[in-house]
């Protein structure tokens, strides 16, 4: 990415859709060029909240979603940052989202709760569930939250890191529309079906978040936007042939990591996140929402399920030296040249971002601002 030339090179437009198209048409001598600008995290937060509110979301829900977006940009996880905002806004503007809905939490057992997200965005449902989930985990040593009718469109590590920073262990799984084929087949059966893990540690928890597919869908979409090619093994085209072209893989099907082993993980997440919560399976989501947001490059969030398991290590026999033993293991890993811990890159980027401005794609920035400007004129 490079810094953009003077703004006169872009024609002005208040319509976000027009700006969106131009983001995919910027080429210099046949090569896609991304121009960037520097903004503060506070500016990102303000802009995202304004875009969501002007699209119809209430203030508290807008703030909940914006915090996840800001955290992603802060940690340079761009595929789940500003890139996702048009999808949120289009979901609202096209009437797929009931802006009057509120998640409800139901106590189902001493160590269990069920959350009907009522079609709300995942950050809103999680914040509604978290106080009860935390209380149950500390009381019983373990707790599980099953979340249905949930629109998860954001980074899964955000929730697990928040839980781990409270001193608890977290495992979270979520399904999505069907984008991924079962190993040996070619039909889209599973979502990218990510799972995330968080374990308490100072100063930063051990956190990882990975899709069951070889690459997260958002990363493929960003690669297409940037004019790049994919590594081998990411997916197949609509004819079932291996492809390194992002557009062909997005139209075809993504592959699981580790061949049949990754497929087993995708199946487990599907059952835990969807079947266990009473939510639509990925192929059912695809049938119900196949045409929703197909013209939005980043897509829009569809309704699926999520399961979160939380464990209190003080109740498991871990012992008073657990943290020292964990640190000894991590020191052993990082002592080897080339080895790094999950989320180490994110934490490193975070240190720089919190003390300075961050670089964002300037046309994407214009898109986000365009939602608040164009909707306000309606």
Summed up, the helix count is 13
Biggest sheet descriptor: 7 strands, mixed
- Helix content range: 40-55%
Structural class: alpha+beta
Strand content: 15-25%
> How many strand segments?
17
Subunit arrangement of the protein: single chain
The whole-number mean of residue pLDDT values reads 89
- What spatial form do the alpha-carbon principal axes imply? globular
**Spatial gap, N to C terminus:** 34 Å
In what order do the strands lie side by side in the largest sheet?
Answer: 5-6-7-16-8-11-12
Query: SSE string, helix = H, strand = E?
Result: EHEEEHHHEEHEHEEEEEHEEHEHHEHHEH
Unreliable residue runs: 1-17
Query: Radius of gyration, rounded?
Result: 21 Å
């Amino acid at each position: 990415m490079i810094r953009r030339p003077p703004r006169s090179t872009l024609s002005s437009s208040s319509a976000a859709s027009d700006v969106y198209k131009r983001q995919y048409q910027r080429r210099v001598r046949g090569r896609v060029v991304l121009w960037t600008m520097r903004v503060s995290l506070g500016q990102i937060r303000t802009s995202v909240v304004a875009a969501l509110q002007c699209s119809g979301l209430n203030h508290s829900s807008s703030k909940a979603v914006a915090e996840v977006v800001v955290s992603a940009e802060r940690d340079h996880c761009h595929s789940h940052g500003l890139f996702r905002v048009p999808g949120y806004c289009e979901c609202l503007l096209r009437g797929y989202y009931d802006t009057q809905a509120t998640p409800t939490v139901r106590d189902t057992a001493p160590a269990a709760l069920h959350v009907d997200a009522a079609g709300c965005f995942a950050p809103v449902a999680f914040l509604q569930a978290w106080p009860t989930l935390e209380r149950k985990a500390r009381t019983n040593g373990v707790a599980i939250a099953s979340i249905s009718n949930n629109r998860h469109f954001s980074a899964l590590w955000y929730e697990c890191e928040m839980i781990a920073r409270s001193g608890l262990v977290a495992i979270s799984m979520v399904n999505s529309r069907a984008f991924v084929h079962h190993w040996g087949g070619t039909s889209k059966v599973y979502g990218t079906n990510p799972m995330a893990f968080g374990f308490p540690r100072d100063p930063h928890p051990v956190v990882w978040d990975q899709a069951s597919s070889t690459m997260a869908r958002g990363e493929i979409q960003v690669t297409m936007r940037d004019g790049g090619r994919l590594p081998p093994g990411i997916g197949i085209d609509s004819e079932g042939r291996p492809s390194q072209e992002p557009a062909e893989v997005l139209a075809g099907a993504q592959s699981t990591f580790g061949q049949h082993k990754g497929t087993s993980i995708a199946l487990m997440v599907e059952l835990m996140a969807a079947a266990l919560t009473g939510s639509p399976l990925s192929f059912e989501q695809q049938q119900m929402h196949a045409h929703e947001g197909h013209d939005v490059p980043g897509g829009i969030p569809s309704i699926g399920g999520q399961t979160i398991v939380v464990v209190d290590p003080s109740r498991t026999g871990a012992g008073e030296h657990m943290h020292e033993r964990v640190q000894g293991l991590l020191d052993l890993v990082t002592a080897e040249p080339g080895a790094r811990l999950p989320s180490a890159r994110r934490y490193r980027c975070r240190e720089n971002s919190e003390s300075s401005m961050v670089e964002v794609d300037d046309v994407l920035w214009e898109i986000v601002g365009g939602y608040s400007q164009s909707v306000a004129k309606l």
